[in-house]
């Protein structure tokens, strides 16, 4: 027997008081992030929101990256989102990282291509994955380190993009080790020269203006 039509009045419909603000913040986040697949991204957004995890949201709208040789879908802004979501752990499970990657509407084949640069089984050190991702954004060690500094810095946007010198050295050594043309001796000599130039700086920080890395592909 079909159910009779039910008439509702305003008094019968309960709207949670927090709903308007949730939808407002969601809309702002979607506009800033500009996801390629709104439904996929929305599922990741509300899943993270329900768990109290960092949201898959960009800080601002990004302009298209003209320096990329091929369109991977990956941007500095999206890597920064992943950093916010993953950097609280030294190592991240690949399954969890792949899901976060999908929630940002990035192609899975690009995720697997990054992992092929330094194959691992079940988990990866987050800083290494971030470095590999930065290397995908450009074709040189110089550009990769620039992205690393801009993602990791606590300086305001447009500032010197300073990061701890130890962190810079760790990422630089790692990316250099993946370059068959890079010499370990040259790498250490370069880092030692940087150390001398930054030794007098407070807190051992290094920014974009402090390094000029030879343009070599990675």
Automatic annotation (TrEMBL):
Record key words, sorted: Cell projection, Cilium, Flagellum
Family label: Belongs to the ropporin family.
Official protein name in the record: Ropporin-1-like protein
SUPFAM superfamilies referenced in this protein's UniProt entry, alphabetically: Dimerization-anchoring domain of cAMP-dependent PK regulatory subunit
PANTHER family associated with the record: ROPPORIN-1-LIKE PROTEIN (PTHR14952:SF14)
GO cellular component: motile cilium
Compartments in which it is found: Cell projection, Cilium, Flagellum
InterPro entries: ROP_DD
CDD domains referenced in this protein's UniProt entry, alphabetically: DD_ROP
Top-rank taxon, per record: Eukaryota
């Amino acid at each position: 027997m079909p159910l009779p039509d039910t008439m509702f009045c305003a008094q019968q419909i309960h709207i949670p008081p927090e709903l308007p603000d949730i939808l407002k913040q969601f809309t702002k986040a979607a506009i800033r992030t500009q996801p390629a697949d709104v439904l996929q991204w929305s599922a990741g957004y509300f899943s993270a929101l329900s768990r109290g995890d960092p949201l898959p949201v960009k800080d601002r709208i990004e302009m298209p990256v003209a320096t990329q040789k091929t369109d991977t879908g990956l941007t500095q802004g999206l890597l920064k989102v992943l950093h916010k979501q993953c950097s609280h752990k030294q190592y991240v499970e690949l399954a969890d990282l792949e899901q976060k990657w999908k929630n940002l509407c990035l192609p899975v084949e690009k995720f697997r291509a990054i992992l092929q640069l330094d194959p691992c089984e079940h988990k990866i050190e987050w800083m290494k994955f971030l470095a590999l991702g930065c290397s995908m954004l450009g074709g040189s060690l110089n550009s990769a380190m620039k992205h690393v500094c801009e993602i990791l810095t606590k300086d305001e946007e447009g500032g010197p993009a300073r990061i701890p010198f130890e962190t810079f050295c760790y990422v630089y050594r790692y990316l250099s080790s993946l370059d068959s043309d890079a010499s370990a001796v040259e790498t250490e000599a370069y880092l030692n020269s940087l150390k001398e130039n930054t030794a007098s700086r407070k807190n051992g920080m290094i920014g974009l203006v402090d390094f000029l890395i030879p343009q070599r592909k990675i």
